[in-house]
Amino acid sequence: MFDFIYEKLYSLGLTAAEVLGKIFKWLFVMLAKPVKALGSVLYAGFFFLDEKFFSTVRNARAETKELVGEVKSTSSGIREMFKINKKQGWSIFKYYARKAFAKHGVVFSVFTNVVLPVFAFAVLCVTVYYCNSMKLGLKITYNNSDIGIVDRESVYLDAQSKAEQRLETAIKSSDENEIIKSTQYEIVPVSLTDLNDSESIAKKMIERSGSNITNACGIYIDGEFLCAVKNETDAVTVFDNILKSYDAGGDGTVSFVEDIAYIQGMYPDNENTIWDAVRLSERLAGKKNEATYYAVQSGDTPSGIAQKFGISTAKLYELNPSAKNNVYVGEKLMITSEVNFIRVQVTRTETRTVSIPFKTITTQNPNLYKGTKKTVKTGVNGEQLVTERVTYIDGVKVRVQEISRVTTREPVDEQIQVGSKTYAVSRYGTVSSGTVKNFGGRFVWPAIGAYNVSSGFGGRRRHGGIDIVKPGGNSTGCTIVAAGSGTVVSASYHPSWGYNVLINHGNGVMTRYAHMLPGSFKVSGGQHVSAGQAIGNIGSSGNVTGPHLHFEVYINGSRVNPMPYLGR
Q1: CA distance linking residue 269 with residue 228, whole number of Å
Q2: pLDDT (tens digit, 0 to 9) for every residue of the chain, 568 residues total?
């Protein structure tokens, strides 16, 4: 078995070796042809270069060496001849030059055909590289002096604008016709590192303007130039001292209403422009013009205030920006322009207590007669603690922003009972029609159904009260009510007043009701009564000529006219 396998593998190996040998032989034959052809081409090229180039180079090199030797051997003689006779020296130089060109033509041919083109190419490359590293710019000549180069005209225009802005005061006050001088441009190639920006050009324009200019710190208020101070620290100190004079409180802030800017630069060196710290302080402490303020009253509106003072609402808002949101009673609004040259704004947190009005709750009481009321519980206002962020400008409150509102005491509602009880028919058969009336005085009308006054107070009879009767007569039985709340002093009989009731209302005020119907008392001494509460009926007891109610009012023991107290 193994011999058979070995025999087969041996046969397979011989067959494979034979096939691979044929393949390699075919490849060698196929590759030999192009390799031989390439070799022939390279061999021909080498001989061509050797004949056309290398031989020329070798010849040129040999002739160059020979030419250099001839130049060395003849140069000293030519130099000596130039010293003796320049004309004859030039003749000898020309002779040797023609002889050299004729004898060594290969050297000059190689130089002309190879060296010069290579040199020209090298020069071209250097020129292209140089041009790529350069660009065109504008050289600026200002007041006959070169001040720099910019890459475009807009840079110069920006520099000119900056120079004019910094020299604004000088331009306005100077007697010279032209502070900023004329400028000339020239287009020149320039390296990127040689370009200038607008700031440096502006400084050079100022320096070469020919005017008396110095370096200083300019002070601008809301963008408007005020002056320049040579030392910026002096200027800052003046403004800081103004702020320090204001007390902002614990968490308050102090700042200027106006925007203050300090700009270093070149400024005209004259007294109109350059100030010292003392002059600056005096100017800032001055006034722009006198101002008028108005304290807001209850019911005022911004438009109404503006109309009152003959200005537009827009002008009022311009002077008082916070008025656009709301105005508060007591707040001072500026009517004319500001007072101080520079205004200081103080903002701090403040608290105040405000009152919370109590509510009135009314309920019906069937035990009280209609038209009367009784205060059961007195109302008490509550309190709130309001925290606000308040802004003052020169001490005048101009803006208030509420932060929080905390109730520290709740209000107590006032409770009032009003009567709903109606008046019944009297025992004498007369109906007490109607309700208790109040004509706007302190007291209610003391009789129901009887509203006429038959006899007034005073007069020739020195009448101590008023007599009240029913319209059309027949007043007997009409209900008499207490004119106000109080305590019954007495309910008794008197020869002149008849059956009468005296009520004490407190604070020295008392009222008397006389000539009442016998047996009609509805109250007794020491009893508390409410306004409008029935106390008896009209009769004719005592010294009278007919039925009526005699009503008196006492103030600290003296009788007075009851009519004002009754509102009639």
Answers
A1: 9
A2: 555 665 666 566 667 667 666 776 776 666 666 666 666 556 555 555 555 555 556 666 666 666 566 666 666 666 676 677 767 767 766 666 666 666 665 555 655 655 556 666 666 666 666 556 567 777 888 777 777 888 777 887 888 787 777 666 566 545 555 666 677 777 777 776 778 888 887 888 777 766 677 788 888 888 888 888 988 888 899 999 988 888 877 788 999 988 999 888 777 788 888 899 999 998 888 877 666 788 888 888 888 888 877 778 888 888 888 777 777 888 888 877 656 788 888 999 989 999 999 999 988 888 765 656 677 888 899 999 999 988 888 877 778 888 899 999 999 999 988 777 665 444 333 334 467 888 888 899 999 989 899 899 987 778 899 999 988 778 898 999 999 999 999 999 999 999 999 999 999 999 999 999 998 999 999 999 988 889 999 999 998 888 999 999 999 999 999 999 998 8
Query: What tokens does 521 get?
Result: 């008392």
| Count of residues in the chain | 568
User: Do residues 388 and 350 make contact, with C-beta atoms less than 8 angstroms apart?
Assistant: yes
Distances (CA, A) of 222 to 86, 190, 334, 566: 84, 42, 20, 69
d(CA 45, CA 52): 10
- Closest by Cα among 334, 251, 327, 240 to 284: 240
Task: State which H helix or E strand residue 488 sits in.
Answer: strand 486-494
Q: Return d(Cα 245, Cα 158) in angstroms, integer.
A: 42
Reading the block at residue 350, the tokens are 């403040």
Distance CA 222, CA 308 (A): 31
Q: Are 267 and 220 in contact (CB under 8 A)?
A: no
In contact, 149 and 188? CB cutoff 8 Å: yes
Rg (CA), the chain: 62
Q: In the 3-class helix/strand/coil scheme, how is 88-140 assigned residue by residue? A: HHHHHHHHHHHHHHHHCHHHHHHHHHHHHHHHHHHHHHHHHHHHHCEEEEEEE
Whether 559 and 508 have beta carbons less than 8 Å apart is answered as no
